[in-house]
């Protein structure tokens, strides 16, 4: 018979020597089974139908082998290639958002709010962009401001009615300030309506 010699395990212990039949092939040395279709497509270059390998070699740029996909993807399945594309798109999207954030940080550092601008929307810089251009952006911004002013006026009116009804016995300083701004808000709203 034939013997497989004793071998040492990673932990330092020894395996016994084994007796095997003639013609035995160890499991590690058994070739992986491939059906005939897999063998055929592995041997075939990846070229478009009708293109000869000689013409592809002549047309290919130097340094690139004909039949090989970019990034050495020729041996991958369709699902694996699809997953690689998804991963690449995700990486590109993440890099884009990081670049956008890097551009926003200096713009935010430049922007300041005064105490009166607390409730007003923040105006982006010219390089920040709002996605709209020219007069469209201006009218949309004015409409937004008008809506905001109407909302504030509604709140002031509700507060005034609650005070008159006696629901609020002692108004806070903020509420009194809000009531005092009523005329300024109405004036600003009229001015915006005239501009449109």
From TrEMBL:
Gene encoding this polypeptide? Answer: Pym1
Q: Where are the stretches annotated Disordered?
A: 43-153, 162-181
- Source organism of this protein record: Crotophaga sulcirostris
Report which residue ranges the record marks as coiled coil.
Answer: none
The Swiss-Prot or TrEMBL record annotates one GO molecular function as:
RNA binding
Q: What is this protein called?
A: PYM1 protein
The UniProt regions of compositional bias labelled Basic and acidic residues, in chain numbering, are: 91-102
Domain WIBG Mago-binding residue range list = 1-26
Composition skew (Basic residues), residue ranges: 79-90, 144-153
The protein's assembly and partners: Interacts (via N-terminus) with magoh and rbm8a; the interaction is direct. Associates (eIF2A-like region) with the 40S ribosomal subunit and the 48S preinitiation complex.
């Amino acid at each position: 018979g034939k013997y497989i010699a004793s071998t040492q395990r990673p932990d330092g212990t020894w395996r016994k020597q084994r007796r095997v039949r003639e013609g035995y092939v160890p499991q590690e040395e058994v070739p992986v089974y491939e059906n005939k279709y897999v063998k055929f497509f592995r041997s075939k270059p990846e070229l478009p139908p009708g293109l000869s390998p000689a013409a592809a070699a002549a047309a290919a740029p130097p340094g690139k082998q004909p039949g090989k996909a970019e990034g050495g993807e020729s041996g991958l399945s369709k699902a694996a290639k699809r997953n690689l594309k998804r991963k690449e798109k995700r990486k590109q999207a993440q890099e884009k958002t990081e670049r956008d954030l890097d551009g926003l940080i200096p713009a935010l550092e430049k922007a300041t709010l005064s105490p009166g601008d607390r409730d007003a929307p923040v105006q982006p810089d010219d390089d920040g962009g709002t996605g709209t251009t020219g007069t469209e952006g201006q009218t949309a911004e004015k409409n937004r401001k008008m809506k905001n002013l109407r909302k504030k006026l509604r709140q002031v009116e509700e507060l005034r009615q609650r005070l008159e009804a006696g629901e609020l016995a002692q108004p806070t300083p903020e509420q009194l300030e809000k009531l005092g701004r009523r005329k300024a808000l109405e004036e600003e709203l009229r001015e915006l309506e005239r501009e449109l």
